[in-house]
């Protein structure tokens, strides 16, 4: 998954609807890893400050909680035919 697949930090978070829950643990790990990379490069956490004040501050944990909470929007990569991987063509 490329970094461009995650929406930019400047996107409006308040008005956006929560992302669909991730059922694949592999997709969860990919999205959380990309988010942790963004946090390491200086992106601001999207979680409530109250959660950050009394929880572990490891960026990987923060990224996982953001993804679990639906705060991170993501797109699935497409194959050369323009359909998401794993979706059968009709």
Keywords:
90 residues, mainly alpha, 0% strand
Brief characterization of the structure:
This protein is mainly α. Helices cover 34% and strands 0% of the residues.
What does this structure look like?
The chain has 90 residues and is mostly helical. The protein has one domain. Helices cover 34% and strands 0% of the residues. It has three helices and no strands. The protein has helices spanning 25-40, 49-53, 59-68. Helix 1 packs across helix 3 (59-68). The two termini are 25 Å apart. Mean pLDDT is 76; it is low at 8-13.
- Gap between N and C termini, in Å? 25 Å
Q: Percentage of helical residues?
A: 25-40%
The coarse overall form would be elongated
* Poorly predicted runs of 5 or more residues: 8-13
Based on helices, strands and strand pairing, what is the structural class? mainly alpha
Walk me through the topology.
Elements: H1 25-40, H2 49-53, H3 59-68
